Amino acid sequence: MTQAQLAEKAGLQRTHISRIEAGKYAVTLETIQAIAEALPLMLELAEVEKKIAEYDARFANATEYNADDYKAYDELKSRYDHLMHEWEKASYEVEITENQ
User: Fold this and answer.
1) CB–CB of 72/36 below 8 Å?
2) Rounded to an integer, what distance in angstroms lies between the CA atom of residue 52 and that of residue 40?
3) Residue 74, Cα to own-chain centre: how many angstroms?
4) Are 78 and 51 in contact (CB under 8 A)?
5) At what angle do helices 29-61 and 67-98 cross, to 10 degrees?
6) Is the pLDDT of residue 82 over 80?
7) What integer pLDDT is reported at residue 43 of this predicted model?
8) How many CB atoms are located within 10 Å of the residue 93 CB?
């Protein structure tokens, strides 16, 4: 995972992450919490994105309709939408905390 990816998911600037890694920034408890909360969410998002891509490839090569595949795909897309909503909510909360 890159600094940019972690920063995006935690709702922080990449330079903020870089300064934390270099020990040049006094980290607040809120920032530590945002980073810790972002990591599991990032991992789950990555896994769901991977599965969606696998279904996309399967559908591109499909010669017949498979209702079970489309149902599973729709469930994955719903899960992805929910996770993205959670990430956006967490990012907004961190932004408010960091700007106080």
Assistant:
1) no
2) 18
3) 19
4) no
5) 160
6) yes
7) 83
8) 15
∠ Cα 42 99 30 (to 5°) = 50
Report whether pLDDT(57) > 90.
yes
d(CA 92, CA 1): 21
Q: Is the predicted pLDDT of residue 36 greater than 70, yes or no? A: yes
Average pLDDT over residues 40-46: 84
Q: DSSP letter string over 17-81? A: HHHHHTT-S---HHHHHHHHHHHHHHHHHHHHHHHHHHHHHHHHH-SS--HHHHHHHHHHHHHHH
Kindly state the greatest CA–CA separation across the chain: 58
